[in-house]
Amino acid sequence: RRQRQMCIRDRDICDEPDNVECPECHKVFHKQCQDMWLATGNRSCAVCRSNSWSNYQIEPCSIGEYQNLDY
């Protein structure tokens, strides 16, 4: 049985099918949480600070939705 993981951004259980994982440190994020993080100008992992998210594509609808957040 696979252990349930917690999203590092919002501290909630990751049980959604579209969760994303950092290729470097393997921490799991909700896709929406990671999109928010990246849409506000951050391009590194929130945990290990690796540059592994530099090629990650944010869904276009997410960019406008998160532009004004101080995240």
Describe this structure in words.
The chain is α+β, with helices and mostly antiparallel strands. The chain has helices at 31-39, 60-66, and strands at 5-6, 13-14, 20-21, 28-29. The chain has 2 helices and 4 strands, in the order ββββαα. The strands form 2 sheets. A two-stranded antiparallel sheet has the order 1-2. The protein has a two-stranded antiparallel sheet with strand order 3-4. The mean pLDDT is 77.
Helix-and-strand structural type: alpha+beta
Number of strands: 4
Global mean pLDDT: 77
Largest sheet: 2 strands, antiparallel
> Uncertain segments of ≥5 residues (pLDDT<50)?
none
Strand order of the largest sheet: 1-2
Number of helices: 2
Range of helix content: 10-25%
C-alpha end-to-end distance = 34 Å
| Pattern of helices and strands | EEEEHH
Strand content: 5-15%
Basic shape = globular
Task: State Rg.
Answer: 12 Å
Short synopsis of the structure:
This protein has helices spanning 31-39, 60-66; strands spanning 5-6, 13-14, 20-21, 28-29. The chain is an alpha+beta fold and 71 residues long.
